[in-house]
């Protein structure tokens, strides 16, 4: 293998940044307002309203739309993965194309094959995330069908609230898996820069992290979503944080 020390260091940097951001986002969501936080609250509201509605036809249609989007990404990932695996058999042609580009570091067929193998692993990861999200959205569909009926007297208000929170939790987990699959696409774009130069790989990784951070914690859509609850971006209030942990 013709990987240089710089290649190994940049690859380790890429993996550590990706995994660290996943952990950072999970921990930060408990202390600061984010897309994950507000979407969880809105999903709880949705499921709570669901248990007090006579018909759930519109809710089933909305859930079906979300599931179709995730299914589209899952099927697209298979096609992308097939394309990457096809390139493995024509590494020499890829090398000739890369060498014709400016600022491309010295490369070799075995090096390109290794990089393509790594890229395929990223899309395999995304495929598993998307398919697990699809399954969990299917679980939400089952919960939607089993939701307490509006006119039913067999459920108390407390039981309806418990059902709404647990259904929203399953819904939220499906959303997290879908989000992880999308992040894999973002980091795959950064990974492509490794084919050109290791330093460009590092820069693109940092750019992707900054874009993800801004969209999840500083975006306009976050401000609009928080405004529906009378909130603004920043740290979660202590009382709300305690209620989340409980």
How would you summarize the topology of this molecule?
Layout: H1 5-28, H2 35-50, H3 57-88, H4 91-99, H5 109-145, H6 157-192, H7 198-217, H8 220-227, H9 238-245
Helix pairs in contact: 1-7, 2-6, 3-5, 4-5, 5-6, 6-7
Structure summarized in a few sentences:
This protein has 246 residues and is mainly alpha-helical.
Helix content: over 70%
Query: What's the number of extended β-strand segments?
Result: 0
Indicate the low-confidence ranges by residue numbers: none
Q: Compute the CA-based radius of gyration.
A: 22 Å
The residue-averaged pLDDT reads: 87
Structural class: mainly alpha
Shape: elongated
Number of helices: 9
The tally of domains stands at 1
Write the H/E string, N to C: HHHHHHHHH
Please report which band the strand proportion falls in: under 5%, 5-15%, 15-25%, 25-35%, 35-45% or over 45%. under 5%
Sheet bearing the most strands, described?
A: none
- End-to-end gap: 52 Å
3D architecture notes:
With 246 residues, the chain is mainly alpha-helical. The chain has one domain. It contains nine helices and no strands.
What attributes does this structure have?
9 helices, mainly alpha, transmembrane helix, membrane, 246 residues, 77% helix
């Amino acid at each position: 293998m013709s990987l240089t020390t710089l290649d190994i260091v940049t690859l380790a940097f890429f993996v550590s940044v990706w995994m660290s951001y996943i952990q950072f986002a999970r921990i930060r969501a408990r202390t600061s307002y984010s897309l994950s936080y507000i979407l969880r609250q809105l999903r709880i509201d949705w499921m709570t309203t669901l248990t007090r509605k006579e018909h759930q036809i519109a809710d089933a249609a909305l859930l079906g739309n979300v599931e179709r989007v995730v299914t589209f990404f899952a099927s697209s990932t298979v096609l992308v993965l097939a394309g990457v695996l096809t390139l493995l058999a024509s590494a020499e042609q890829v090398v000739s194309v890369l060498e014709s580009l400016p600022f491309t570091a010295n490369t070799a067929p075995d090096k390109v094959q290794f990089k393509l193998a790594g890229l395929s692993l990223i899309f395999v990861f995304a495929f598993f995330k998307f398919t697990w999200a699809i399954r969990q959205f299917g679980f939400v569909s089952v919960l939607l069908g089993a939701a307490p009926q509006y006119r039913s007297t067999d459920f108390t208000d407390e039981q309806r609230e418990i059902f709404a929170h647990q259904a929203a939790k399953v819904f939220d987990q499906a959303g997290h898996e879908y989000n992880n699959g999308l992040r894999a696409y973002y980091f795959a774009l950064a990974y492509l820069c490794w084919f050109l130069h290791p330093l460009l790989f590092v820069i693109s990784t940092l750019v992707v992290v900054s874009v993800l951070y801004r969209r999840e914690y500083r975006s306009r859509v976050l401000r609009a979503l928080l405004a529906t609850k009378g909130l603004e971006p920043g740290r979660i209030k202590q009382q709300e944080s305690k209620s989340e942990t409980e």
